[in-house]
Amino acid sequence: MPQQLTGTLRDVGEFQLVAALAERFGQADVVRVGPGDDAAVLDLPGGQVVCSLDMLVQNRHFRLDWSTASDIGHKAAAANLSDINAMGGRATALLVGLAAPPDLDCSWALEFADGLAAEAAEVGASIVGGDVTRADAITISVAVLGACEHGVATSLGRPGR
Questions:
Q1: What structural domains does the chain harbor?
Q2: Which residue in 69, 53, 72 sits closest to 61, CA to CA?
Q3: pTM as predicted
Q4: CB of 75 within 8 A of CB of 56?
Q5: 103, CA 20 to 30 Å: which among 55, 109, 132, 156?
Q6: Looking at residue 29, what is its pLDDT?
Q7: Which of 58, 144, 39 shows the shortest CA–CA distance to 108?
Q8: DSSP-assigned states of every residue in 101-133
């Protein structure tokens, strides 16, 4: 039976919440490393694929009065790229979601994209798609895919299968 949590998210904390959520998700045979680590690792025909996703929310993870759009783009990409590296992988592709208020100046979005692209280029990764939608505050979601050519290393110290 999956773990039941009581209290608020503040009371429980991120790691206990992730553990309780992960108990509810069945894992296919292709999952080498699932929820709860830096990134997931899948055993697919042709090799291992490493996947990670992070979100950044305005006034929680960044402030517009402290950071340029380019800075935020660099940060958004770097957070995920480092998760792929932590698993022993090499990032190849990013998918980026941008939710923003309708009155956000387009120049901000383009400068943000320039920061993302520059950070991805540092490791030879490409931005291959994503999504744009309206929101009350800027929210950024970045998913990164990568290859694990020499086997996976996990931050939990578990060897792969």
A1: 38-148 (3.30.1330.10)
A2: 72
A3: 0.81
A4: yes
A5: 55
A6: 78
A7: 58
A8: -TTS-HHHHHHHHHHHHHHHHHTT-EEEEEEEE
DSSP 62: B
Count of residues making up the chain: 161
Contacts 24+ apart (CB under 8 A), 54-60: 54/79, 54/80, 54/83, 54/141, 54/142, 55/139, 55/140, 55/141, 55/142, 56/139, 56/140, 56/142, 57/137, 57/138, 57/139, 57/140, 58/137, 58/138, 58/139, 59/137
Terminal C-alpha separation, the chain: 25
* Segments of the chain with pLDDT less than 50: 155-161
pLDDT value, residue 105: 95
Using DSSP, state whether 134 is helix, strand or coil: strand
Instruction: Compute how many other C-beta atoms are within 10 angstroms of the C-beta atom of residue 91.
Output: 26
